[in-house]
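User: Modeling request: complex.
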Amino acid sequence: MKRFRTLTGLAWISPWLLGFACFTMLPLAMGLWYSFTDWTLLEPAIPIGMDNYERLLGDEVVHIATWNTLLYLVISIPLLTIASIAMAVLLSKPARFQAFWRVAVFAPSVLPLVALATIFKLMYDAELGAMNKGLSFVGIDGPNWFGTEAWAMTAIILMNLWVVGPAMVIYLAALRDVPRDLNEAASLDGVSWWGRLVNVTLPMISPVILFNVIIGFINAAQVFVVPYIMTAGGPNRGTYFWSMYVYDAAFKYGDMGYASTLGVVQFAAILLLTLGLLLVGRRYVYYRGGMT
Amino acid sequence: MIEPGMKTNGPARMVTWLLLALCAAIALFPVLYMAILSMQPATQAMDADGGLVPGSLADTAANYSAVVNDDAINFPLYFRNTLLIAMLAVAGVVCSSAITAYGFARVRWRGRQPLFIVMLATMMVPFPVVMVPLFVLFRELDWIGTFLPLWVPAWFGSAFSIFLLRQFYMTIPRELDDAARIDGCGHVGIFLRIILPLSLPALLVVGLLHFMYVWNDFLGPLVFLTHRDQYTLALGLELYMSRLGTTPWNLVMAASTIMVAPVLLLFLFAQRSFLEGISTTGLKG
Amino acid sequence: MVPAGQYHAVMPDQLGRTVSIVVLCLAAAVAIGYVTFGPRPGASGHGDRIVLNYWEKWTGTEAQAMQQVVDAFNASQDRIHVNYLTMSSIDEKAMLAIAGGAPPDVLGLWSFNLPFYAQANAILPLDLPGIKAETYAPAVRPLVFDGDTQLAGVNTCSSVALYVNLSHLDRAGLDYRNGGPPRTLEQFDAMIPYLTIYDADGNVEQAGFLHMDPGWWHWCWPGYFGGQLYDVETDAATIDSPENIAAFTWFQEGQRRYGLDRLRRFQSAPTDSPSPYRNFLSGRLSMTIQGPWLARVIAERAPDLKWAAWPLPGPAGEPGAPAGPIECDILVVPQGAPHPEEAMEFIAFTQRQDMVELVSVLHAKPSPLMEVSSEFYFNHLNTSIAAHEAILHSPNGFGTPPVATWPEMNAALDAGIDRIWNGNEDVATVLADVQAEVSAQLERARVRRERRGQERYGAGP
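Assistant: Request completed. Predicted assembly structure:
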């Protein structure tokens, strides 16, 4: 009977199970195997032990790509978290046309990244772009956005702020769940608006913050399309990210073995960092009694 | 004592309202910018002092017909390709995820919980990591240069959709199952007669989200499609833009508008289910 | 567990829901209709002819020129039909297609792609009847032959020359009519201050010469100084040679002459003809290095511009034998092409003197062949074609290094050049870094060849 139930369960989830085996586990296993080989696009793979991993440790481009990816993560995730919580708090206040504001703020998030990156490439254009025209409006001489490493990175991080939508909507739902009486009690005790936000609201929604940070981290760790379209990784590899190196190594330099190594390391890093985030996050996250 | 911002208080409301309007304006600016530029003649779009006003109706028509009738880049065909891939993939994701989610939500069996966690963990596997082995796998299957790599995997469900549907199924009262079981229904009967009809809105959300995912995908088509006649809009747009210098920005923006319009309309139309659907993924189940 | 109530919002009210479903069904119906009855890929309805897919990088006027050759071939026989298709980032996408087992029959690449493709076994050697190395100009031969094996046909060929706005020279009192073009780099450098005009705020209004405008031939500067990036004989990188340090120091001077801030403001000032050529066409830049097609662009967009093209002087060049970069647009047959024999038949057709000249004339480029007809010059769009030919036939003309790791080498070089230009870093230090990176690339390539027992590209007799 028990075995029958297990079989029934497996049968129901078999579509996913099959896909998981073919399109996730198999490629991961293949990638792991190829990472120990010398393998070009058109010729058979030759096992070479740990050579690719040794090369990776000393590869200057890996260092640059790692640094850029980390820099991007460390700046863009907090920024995105603050922006999406702020937007959610703002949108949770009673106001006229609320549905309209919500849709407006969310709308850029549904745009294809290719299109969004294309639009922003024009907006950042030093000559024609709206960005510098807007800045000169308030008396700032806009930078040459794609001219230096720092500004190119800033441009990519800034563009990301237009994609606050999904996180914001999740925060919005979480804010609605924060018990009103808690806030009201605090306000009767004379706690300021800011104090209530920091001491009541944020702890109450902290599980959702952790969830969004993890999702945001996984997405940001594989950033590819925006720099590919906007900067092609330049200048001086200042916006060259890990995923771009995987792509270049495989399909531009024809080095599939090394590309697999880069992929394996990327996966391992994401896995470990996610687990780390979860473990550290759990300590600071407040779960309401009985919720977990 | 009146707390500022607590009660319906004029100035605070005004500030909220102004902030909202400002944020909405900033958020919508890129979209409006794109739309307006796509309606300008080249001389105006490429002039730094051209301003943010659309050109005449004739200019607009000229821009769009130039994009649609381009001799090298066949946007109507790419539109069709993208639509075809998206529809096949959406059909696949909806069917397979609906079935799989049932197994995770409604059948009690050993190993369900660990496998569910494994499934959630697969959302952590970035595409670039499996891109190279998948390329080899599809090459062995002779699928490179066909649409197959872009929609067949969808027929095996996507972790995100399964998760969303499972969350939804959990909210359907179990008493309904029991009643059906008394009527002699098995799992298949319960699934078809009770779960499916009740979860139509959730299926809709899953379909919409996956449609947008496929519509927006760039790296997949970039790696798996080879022939120009198979391009999707994302690749077409990149191809179009990479001729910059010969292609003026107003036409690039018109091409972007063509790609953006369907998803934006779909979102505006279904925004309520859409936003609710996304917010469910943040809830603990 | 989540209470069911939270999902009520998912279901809109009954009316809204009905409307939603109706509209969605309509949208789905329209979508299905569009997919079923909408546009389809161009049917290969050419009777029982073999259809060859030919991928090429050109669009617009340049594509139309090549289309004429394709049309001529299709009309010349009744067995094969060639289908011309434009691609972007063609070198990357073609490699993917070849590796994926779905390549085209004929592929148009740049000559700098050839070593990488050849070493990767991605192309087939060509056997073109009646064509020998001697058919092509000497500078072109090493770009399409590996030893005695022909790997590619030549579509067109360009050399890079200095394009000069003659009105600017007149206005500055530089007497090129009697003095002729600058013969040394010192003479050339001395012209630049005369051609640079600042406005009242100290902004550059007219620039004499900018190394980064258009910035397409980063690798070329050493060639003017007699330096090279790679030594074929020893398979070694020579990035930090004294000649190269001199060349990139001169390059960096070009930036310091104006300063990064001024350059940024100069490049972001509005012009009326947006394109990579905008500064030269609008008369804000007096001299620029460009390929011969610029003559065509000038004729189309700035017909009133008075211009001439000269070889850019440099220590390596001599008046009779100028230095300058040479590039070819090449045709190859990819590994796994469905119809390799027919593809070679097409390539052989494109190598006919009349066909080569047809494309070259319309592209405003010199002819890559040894034999050139008199009509060629008669019809030619580029009045300064002699300057391009002088470079093409000069012993001091140079191409990209014949090295299979060029894509990686170029990426390393590009990053170094960004540091030299934008970062104002010490040239010798930067080049030493690039040298180290490139040497490691070459060493890896050597180990890889040894593992597979392969010959090095370019090492042949």
